[in-house]
Amino acid sequence: MEFNKLSKNNGRLPLVNAAEEVGLIQTRAQVIPGRFYKLTARVDVPQITSEWVYQKTGKNWIDLDPVGLLLFHDNWKEVALVLNLKVIPPQVQAKVLEAYWNFSKLNGLANLFNQDNQLRPLEERRLIDQRFYLITPTALSTILGVNNLNYAISTYRMDQVISARLIDWDNFGSLVNPAISDYGFYPKPANLAQIYENIVTNKLI
Question: What residue ranges do the domains of the chain occupy?
């Protein structure tokens, strides 16, 4: 299916709520790269302060409920790298999703569907390796034509991930053009306008 024919979110729900609505509950062992997830993570501090956030992330925010693409790297079973869609301006986010959809179509996405254009069972698809599952931060930067995605990538130890939901390919459009929300961001209140501006100054668009 062409990206422009997918049923889109178009402001109906924020990403976290869309993932809660359509996401498939997964265990930590079932979370694997090249797919889109909503994760919930914990941190081992009594209070999340601005100083702690900067020391921990090198950024002025931390998101404990990211929604985005789990990227591949050598240590992905212990550390999750998530291209966090929530920190990318919505109009840019839609372009990112379209680029990844088209890249996936060129690299085996059709193999995940049967002859009736229905997704194969999830357990069956776990056994089907596709090139786009091995997408690294560097490879994704190349696909998107940007120099550095680091500001938009959130890092989590897998032993601190307390829940996960998979946004499967038949609900991919629910990620596109969501309502804006700062749910999951710390410190509060989150300055999303500043976060989006930092995406621009980091030359991601």
Answer: 3-201
Cβ atoms of residues 179 and 11 within 8 Å: yes
Distance CA(138)–CA(90), nearest Å, equals: 22
Give the model's confidence band at 91: pLDDT under 50 very low, under 70 low, under 90 confident, else very high: confident
Give the end-to-end CA distance of the chain in Å, rounded to a whole number: 26
Q: Is the distance from CB of 169 to CB of 7 less than 8 angstroms?
A: no
Closest Cα to residue 132, out of 102, 154, 153, 155? 102
From the list 15, 11, 31, the residue with the least C-alpha distance to 171 is: 15
Q: Tens digit of pLDDT for each residue in 160-184?
A: 999 999 999 999 999 999 999 999 9
Q: Specify the amino acid at residue 79.
A: V
Omega into 46 within 30° of 0, i.e. cis?
no
Assess contact for 50 and 184: CB atoms under 8 A.
no
Q: What is the pTM of this model?
A: 0.93
Query: What is d(CA 136, CA 33) in angstroms, rounded to the nearest whole number?
Result: 9
In Å, how far are 16, 35, 64, 67, 77 from 38, measured between CA atoms?
7, 10, 10, 4, 16
Rounded to whole angstroms, the Cα distance separating 185 from 193 reads 13
Tokens representing 186 are 């710390």
pLDDT band of 129, cuts 50, 70, 90: confident
Q: DSSP class of residue 23? A: P
> Can you tell me which residue has the tokens 């976060």?
195
